[in-house]
Fold:
Amino acid sequence: MSNSPSRVVYFFDGFNFYHSLKEKHREYLWLDYWRLAEIFTPKTNKLSNVLLFTTYAKWRPESYMRHKKYLSVLRSRGVEIILGKFYKKMRGCQICGNLYEAHEEKQTDINIAVSMLTWAIQDRFDELVIGSADSDLIPAIKALRSAHPDKKITLLFPLGRKSFDLKNLGLKVMHVKKKHLASSQLPREVRMNDGSVVKRPVNWS
Structure:
C-alpha cells in the first residue's frame, strides 16, 4: 500500500459560483480558485489540479473583456480553464407575447462530466472535489462511483447554495462560507509574467 499523499483535484462550476455571489456578495467575485482549493485541502493531501469550467458572454463586450482578463489571472495561478458556449435562443415575453433573443449557457455540465470520467480512467486523482450544487451532475457522479469505486468524491457547495438531491447521494459535503471567500481574494492588482498589470474590476466590490 502506497504512503504517498492523496492526489486531490477540484472541478469548479464557474457559473454556479458566480451566480451565488453576483447579487449580494460582489465583494468576493475576485476569487482565487486555487487558494480556495488550498483552504479545503488537508495538509496531508496533495492539491494536484484546479479546473474552472466557465463560458464567455461574447455578446457583452465589457463583460467579455473583464472575464477574459480575470481568467488570464487565474491561469497564472495554475488554474486550468475549460470553456463551454452560450447559444442563442428565442423566448416569448410572458406579458406581451413578443419574441426576444436570449442566450443559454451550454456544455458546462457535459464538460465536467466528461472530465470526471476521463481523469478517473487516466488515474489522475485519488479524490475529486466538485465545486457545484447543480443536480444535473448526478448521473455523471453515479457513473463515476460505479466504474471507479476506489475514487473518492466530495461535494463543495457555493455560498448559500444547497441541493438535497446531491446530498442524498451520501457523499461528503463541504460548504463555502464568507470567511473562506474573504481569505481567497486575489490582490487588487496582479502583475502578469509579461509585465502587464490586471486590476480588480471596479464593479466587483
About this structure: Helices lie at 14-21, 33-40, 61-76, 108-121, 138-147, 164-167, 178-182. The radius of gyration is 18 Å. Residues 61-76 form the longest helix (16 residues). The mean pLDDT is 89.
